[in-house]
Each structure stands twice: as C-alpha cells, then as structure tokens.
Amino acid sequence: MIKRYFVRIRSLKEGMRIDQNIKDRLDRVLIAKGTHLADYQIEALERMGISGVYISEGEEDATPQQEEKPMTAVARKNIAKHRTNDPAKVKLSESIKRRVSEGIQFLYNDTDSPNFTTTSTNITSNLLKAIDDNAAIAVDISALKTSDEYTFKHSVDVATMSMVVAKKMGMSHQDIYNIGIAGLLHDMGKSKIPLTILNKPAKLTDDEFEVMKKHSVYGYQILKEKDDFSAPIALAVLQHHEKMNGNGYPMGVNREKISPYAKILSVVDVYDALVTERPYKKGMSQRDAIEIIMSMTEELDIDSMRSFLGSVILYPVDSIVKLSNGEEACVVENHPEAVLRPTVVGLETGNVYNLADDLACASILIV
Fold first, then answer.
1. Assigned domain for 163 exists
2. What pTM, to 2 d.p., does this model score?
3. Is the model's pLDDT at 146 over the cut of 50?
C-alpha cells in the first residue's frame, strides 16, 4: 500500500520519493513524480522557493495475475514439444528505469549544465549494463517504458534498441556505447525548438516543419560546443534524419556519406516514432510499423534494417495471439528472419502453425 504525506523542504532527505511533478514556468517537468530525490534536487527545490512537497512510501498492491487461457491436452503437449525460449532480452529494472528517467529529464531541461556529460555517460552505462548483464541480443519492443513523456521515452527507446542492433551487427563494445550516447542525445536539439511548435497538437505547417527540421543541427551544435563527445557521436546526431536515397535532412546526403551510427539510429528512430502516440496522432500497431520499416528499402540502410528486424521480438514466446483463421494460439518460437511470423500452437486444435516456413500456413496471419 502506498502512503502519501506532505514534507517541508528542510525535512526532505535524499532518497525520498516525490509524489508530484515539479514544473518550470514553461510547464516543463523538472522533477517527475516518482523520482527518488537527490541532494542537488532538494537544493533546487529550496532555491525555487517551494515550501514543501508530497512524498510517497510503499508500493502498489500487486495486480492479480491474468487467468490462464484454457487449452486442450493436445495443445499443451504440442506447446511443450515445440516451445523454444526467446533470445536473451534487455531487462530494465525499476531502479534503472527510474535513474534513466530522472537523468534524461535533467539533460533536456538543462543543456548548459556542467553535469551534462557525466549524466549522459551514466545513463548510457546503465543501459549498457542492462544489456551486458544478461547477454541480451534482443528487445521486447512492447516492454520498454521509462517515462510517460514522449521526448524522454523516445530517447531512451532509441538508445536501447540502437545498442542492441549494434551488438547484433557485431560492433565493438566502444561502438555500442557510443551509439547509446548518440541515441540518447539524438533529439537534444528539440530543447531549442519553440514550445508552440514542439507541443503543437496538430500537424505542423510547412514553415513550422522547416523550423523543426533544424533540431538535428541544434543537437550537433550542443555536442560540439562541449568538446566531450567524439566526432562520430556528434555526426550521428546531425545525420539521424538523413536517408539512403538523399531525400533526408539537414544536408540531403546519400548512403555513402551517412555514418554507420546514423544508419542504425535512422531505422530505430522511424520505428519508435511510428508506434508512439502523440497529441496529433495515434500510435501505429507494432506490426504495422514493422511492415512500414520493411517497405523503406530505398530510405533505410538494408544491413541496419535486417539487424533491427532480427533483434526485435514482436510476439514473445508464451504470448497469446489471434490468427486470421479465427483461432487463438500460443507463440512457441520466434524466427529472427521473419519477425511477423512466429511458430504458434492453436489452443483448441493443438495444430502447429509454422508461419515462417510452412507454405500451408502462407495465408494465415496474426491479427
């Protein structure tokens, strides 16, 4: 059970969990609800003239587990026979999610902070540790959630998925770390975009979009001014909206001049933007977004795209899906080369459908 109470600033202690959002005059979140306060945040609250804040303790009561889907004996037998564990996936503990969420909000709210570089490297190290701790080579793309605020969530999603893709491509540990930094900071230039454009709850006009497109240049300038980030990291931030056919921005360069980091970021950035709901659009289903990614062979780097598709798990093993033939089925094996078409077992019939390789299943889709 969660207990909530008011604490005056002078009585706050490091580690207390704040139970309200602290915002600046532009309505930007400076300290998010749920943050475990650090000493510097308590000092900032005092400087802001805030007399006290609400604090919470304890945890929410555990939610009841979903009732197990009924299945026949033959279905159980075939599920046990054909079940193959998914590759090791990235797992972000609640403490890591909390630290990452706090850190990314700090970065976007104060790009001039002397702690900018340290915070960036700490967040990336946390994400890389989560990947290394369980030798992760895949990511459950429905499970990433570090913040409800789009910019922060998007940055962490892109960083995490890009690191996994880089690992899948056989990049060095240093390259994986670097691309994590680039993914985390790829939209940092949006901090320089007017809020009227950034938060507009409707489609941007052509003129507004031209302003928005400058965010990659602004992000590049932020990093270059600090002299703490390598040239490949800054270049990836600059180029993450460039396209292989030269139809991207800000420079309109083609595949030969786009950096390896940017090629990966571009794929992941497009995917995460498609599935994320914004005030002016609904998020696409993960399946539809994957299909769009697969159709963008002229704009996205093929090698990066293949590694991305081979790294994401759309239907985790043991999840229940609905088939186009009307059956409910249990996922028993995923195929990296066919992310949309795992092997499943019908819960009633016990039929095994290898959607990736069995031609008899060619007309069956997961709906």
1. yes
2. 0.77
3. no
